[in-house]
Write a structure and sequence with these properties.
The protein has five helices and seven strands, in the order βαααβββαβαββ. It is of the alpha+beta class. α1 crosses α3. It is globular.
Length: 169
């Protein structure tokens, strides 16, 4: 297939609260995205424990703080909010670069602002250049490096860029 120089049309993206029925699809997105971005940066023993079932359990446990982006009713990405932190942000491999991430990000920002968060923050693993570029493009400001605790691995950390964004009210 040859390129015409035109981008694929931006899909119609709907974003709303996660429901239990989203768990398997969102966990697959999280599993895939985590392995794409974090596995090369993380110790082998931690990577070995990152199974689809683990991501499904984590997703189900945070269902009430999660928002899912869908395209034609199918989950394409999700964002988890924990207070003033954008805790997790993933877009399925099939939808990266196709206009799903920004509506999902803006929705998460609106939710946090509506909850009174003046400045939100997120962590981005050092070495995850595509995410780093996206966050900067979406208006997040890169700050100092921090050691972030690795989910499910108490006492283990990963160096991360800390991004912030003033949300206003």
């Amino acid at each position: 297939m040859w390129k015409t120089g035109k981008r694929d049309p931006v899909p119609a993206v709907a974003v709303g609260p996660a429901v239990r029925a989203d768990t398997d699809a969102a966990a697959a997105i999280w599993h895939e995205g985590w392995h794409d971005a974090h596995a090369p940066l993380t110790a082998a023993d931690i990577v070995a424990g990152r199974t689809p079932a683990v991501f499904a359990a984590w997703f189900a446990a945070q269902l009430k703080s999660t928002y899912v982006a869908t395209v034609d009713g199918v989950p394409a990405g999700f964002a988890m909010i924990d207070g003033d932190e954008l805790d997790q942000f993933y877009v399925g491999r099939r939808w990266r670069g196709h206009g799903v991430a920004l509506p999902l990000m803006r929705h998460a920002e609106r939710i946090m602002a509506a909850r009174g968060v003046g400045e939100a923050w997120l962590s981005c693993a050092v070495g995850n250049l595509p995410a780093r570029r996206f966050y900067a493009k979406a208006g997040w400001i890169e700050g100092p490096l921090v050691d972030a605790t690795i989910r499910g691995a108490p006492g283990r950390t990963l160096p991360c860029h800390r991004f912030t964004k003033a949300l206003g009210r």
